[in-house]
Amino acid sequence: MTKEFPKGFLWGAAASAQQLEGASSEAKKAKTVWDYWYAKEPDKFYQKRGPEHTSNFYYRYKEDIVLMKNVGFNSFRTSISWARLIPDGKKVNKEAVSFYRDLFERLNKEGIKPIANLFHFDMPLRLHKIGGWENKEVLEEFYYYAKVAFETFGDLVFDWVTFNEPIVPIEMGYLNDKHLPGIWDMERAMQAGFNTMVAHKKAVKAFKEANIEGGKIGIILNLTPSYPKGENVEDIRAAEIADAFFNKSFLDPAVLGRYPRVIRDVLKTEGIKVNYSQEELDLIKNYKVDFLGVNYYQPRRVQKGDSKSNFKQGFEKYFRSYKWPKAKMNPHRGWEIYEKGIYDIAINLRDCYSNIPWFVAENGMGVEGEEKFIKNGMVMDDYRIEFMSEHLTWLHKAIQEGSNCFGYHVWTFIDNWSWLNEYKNRYGLYRVDLLNQKRTIKKSGRWFYNLATTNKLIE
Ligand code: BGP
């Protein structure tokens, strides 16, 4: 069966500055939290490989753009490094400007639409030291950075994103130890989360002020549809609360300009206070996004909470995760694969979020030990082809039913470094040999080329 996608559909991949560029302390780039953390605690990082061990895109981007062409991309999203563009928070780094301008120019020339993101987990160290998103001064710095980025690259990039997965540094840094500051504190998590939303709104405001002709601004959220264990009231309520905190907490203010009641009720019951001003509430109400990017990897399965649990350190009081017995698991990574989740997201955006234009901004399959699938020099990743194909089948159905989806980006185009996981889980359409940086197309890269250039999924 052939499934055709709408005319002009975006096919491409996502990446991020810290994960792809390398040159982490070169060309006047200032340190980020990741550079700092690695220098301090290398043992935390899988195989002790830190952010300087990436795929060196900073030096290889010209050749890598050719590789993008060879897998049929018509679009590519990456982030600008805040610490590279404005190392001291004031003076714009000319070397960074030349790098990003050349990158965007070349992408445009090759017919690959650049989508630029401002923040992908890489807080400049000097701002982390003054409290990161907890400090309202950092929000002003972000506003300035956004203005500089729009003014400097607004003639080359028309599709902008403020944040990738803004909830991740909050969840992983304030209710876990996988990002800095690495603490368990619900009150601080809520404040940092709220401030992140205000920072996003300030960037949207800066974007409107920059008046980029034909420009659009969005945000990328990792949405995890929440499914209750049973049909009973308690499990259903648990799923509602999980959905509110993990999806609606950013989705609702970004798209609708307000926070869901459920969140306000829970915080009130728990006596958790968030500091805000009327001016901030007005920003939230007035600066809505033009489009949305959705990263989808896996759903959330929940059951009723444990009333004895302490809310100050986690959500278990209201919902706990459980393993669905029928779940299909990614045997090479351990995450659930639930393709229909993408359809449920699409229909929810159609019905509850004014059918906002959106695209799949990340979807992909991480595989540990992928070298075992190499045959005659090529990774025969049929599992990845099946993964994308099944997600696209559900996405196509949702588009047929009226969901306003305009593209599909895979995570990611070449294997890249991933936070504490280093290269543990490979996601690329190209394999990267870490000894010599050689890129080799995988079977999925060939498959993606046909998909993107025909605009059709052929099963
Ligand atoms: C997303 C992030 C990416 C990337 C990806 C894969 O949440 O936006 O930055 O890391 O997940 O995650 P991992 O490498 O942990 O498998």
Summarize the structure.
Helix content is 41%, strand content 18%. The chain has 15 helices and 21 strands. α3 runs parallel beside α5 and α8 runs antiparallel to α9.
Write the layout of secondary structure elements.
Layout: E1 2-4, E2 10-14, H1 17-20, H2 33-40, H3 57-70, E3 75-79, H4 82-85, H5 94-109, E4 113-119, H6 125-128, H7 136-153, E5 159-164, H8 167-174, H9 186-210, E6 216-222, E7 226-228, H10 233-256, H11 261-270, H12 278-286, E8 291-295, E9 300-304, E10 319-321, E11 328-329, E12 336-337, H13 340-352, E13 358-362, E14 367-368, E15 374-375, E16 378-379, H14 382-400, E17 405-410, E18 425-426, E19 430-432, E20 439-441, H15 443-454, E21 456-458
Helix pairs in contact: 3-5, 7-9, 8-9, 9-12, 13-14
The structure holds 6-O-phosphono-beta-D-galactopyranose.
Question: Can you describe this structure?
Answer:
With 459 residues, the chain is α/β, with parallel strands linked by helices. The chain has a single domain (2-458), classed as Glycosidases (TIM Barrel, Alpha-Beta Barrel). It contains 15 helices and 21 strands. Strands 2-3-4-5-6-8-13-17 form an eight-stranded parallel beta barrel, surrounded by five helices. The chain has a three-stranded mixed beta sheet with strand order 7-9-10, covered by helices on one side. Strands 1-21 form a two-stranded antiparallel ribbon. A hairpin with a 6-residue loop joins strand 19 and strand 20 (439-441). Helix 3 (57-70) packs parallel to helix 5 (94-109) and helix 9 (186-210) packs across helix 12. It starts with a strand and ends with a strand. The mean pLDDT is 97. Bound molecules: 6-O-phosphono-beta-D-galactopyranose. 6-O-phosphono-beta-D-galactopyranose binds at residues 16, 19, 164-165, 222, 295, 362, 366, 411, 418-419, 421, 425.
